[in-house]
Design a protein that fits this description.
Mean pLDDT: 97
Largest sheet: 8 strands, parallel, barrel
Distance between the termini: 25 Å
Strand order of the largest sheet: 1-2-3-4-7-8-9-10
Bound molecules: NADP nicotinamide-adenine-dinucleotide phosphate
CATH architecture: Alpha-Beta Barrel
Length: about 300
């Protein structure tokens, strides 16, 4: 998995042409890892961008790309997982994805078109049944790897206890103001790779805030190094040994976000970042609504 991936979840949601143009621009900038999900509505523009990149010779083969997509909670039912994966592949115009993740550890009994949702449609995830469906997707060759997203240590224990094929990845919010030390330690001990999402705190989105881009501590470190605050946040994540998915549809910022490899943070910088106040930014409750089961899941570490 390339260490930096381009996120494709945009707020407000971009139209197909805007998203496709941004993805093609990202390929020109050097991105080869793209993170999408059925729920983002970005599978189709990503599929169109890949087809065009092949047509114009921006890439020579689909194998040069690493594509991650996710099983939406409305399909988190054992019988629906293989069909949902096939539907995502159709949207992407691909024969396989590189990584297929369970998007979040809940099931919704209905398809939804807006959030928050009614409490009655939220159910606990059937971890065993759903994971077996994910394993089937891999066994059928629809995906090269399978994993999870937004899983706590407790949920990881559950899936690891029943998995024939263990999850390769847990994609979670991780950044200087939500460092996820306990979860990272746990996943490392069980051989599960972490991908950090919202590494910039998802500023200017409905689900994020400006705590990172407006952090005085990060700005001071950045100034001393001739870097930007965003680059310091991304470099910090990289130095923790995780992969990163970050979204920019802006030509300059998407390039800026790749410039994190030929310099390093000092021990002093890392200590300052270590002391930043910690608070989870992206909660399931902020998306699905403050229902009991959702609040319980949010409270798990
Ligand atoms: N698994 C999950 O449940 C989950 C949840 C959330 C996100 N994700 C994935 O992770 C990806 C990234 O997370 P995210 O989109 O939530 O947040 P993010 O990457 O932390 O932040 C994106 C925001 O930062 C802005 N930005 C990008 N580069 C910047 C820079 N150098 N300086 C200042 N602002 C900058 C972007 O605006 P511009 O586009 O205008 O640059 C956008 O508003 C998503 O797109 C999605 O693929 C997964």
């Amino acid at each position: 998995m390339p260490v930096i991936g381009m996120g494709t979840s945009s707020y407000p949601p971009a139209d197909i042409e805007t998203a496709k143009a941004a993805i093609l621009e990202a390929m020109r900038a050097g991105y080869r890892h793209f993170d999408t999900a059925f729920a983002y509505g970005s599978e189709k523009p990503l599929g169109e961008a890949i087809a065009e990149a092949l047509r114009v010779g921006l890439i020579q083969s689909r194998d040069e790309l690493f594509i991650t997509t996710k099983l939406w909670s409305s399909f988190a039912d054992p019988a629906q997982i293989v069909p949902a994966c096939r539907m995502s592949l159709q949207n992407l115009q691909l024969e396989y994805v590189d990584m297929y993740l369970i998007h979040q550890p809940v099931r919704l009994t209905e398809m939804i078109s807006r959030t928050p949702v009614a409490a009655e449609i939220i159910r606990p995830l059937d971890v065993k049944g759903v994971w077996e469906g994910m394993e089937e997707c891999k066994n059928l060759g629809l995906t090269k790897g399978i994993g999870v997203s937004n899983f706590s240590c407790k949920k990881m224990e559950e899936v690891l206890s029943i998995a024939k094929i263990p999850p390769a990845v847990n994609q979670v919010e991780m950044n200087p103001v939500w460092q996820q030390k306990q979860l990272r330690e746990f996943c490392k001990s069980r051989g599960v790779h972490i991908t950090a999402y919202s590494p910039l705190g998802a500023n200017n989105t409905k689900w994020g805030d400006n705590r990172i881009v407006e952090s005085d501590v990060l700005a001071e470190i950045a100034k001393a190094k001739g870097k930007t605050t965003a680059q310091v946040a991304l470099r910090w994540a990289y130095e923790q040994g995780v992969s990163i998915v970050t979204k920019s549809f802006n030509k300059q910022r998407m390039r800026e976000n790749l410039q994190i490899f030929d310099w390093a943070l000092s021990t002093d910088d890392l200590e300052k970042i270590d002391q930043l106040l910690q608070r989870k930014g992206v909660t399931l409750a902020s998306i699905l609504g403050p229902h009991d089961l959702v609040l319980e899941l949010d409270a798990e570490v």
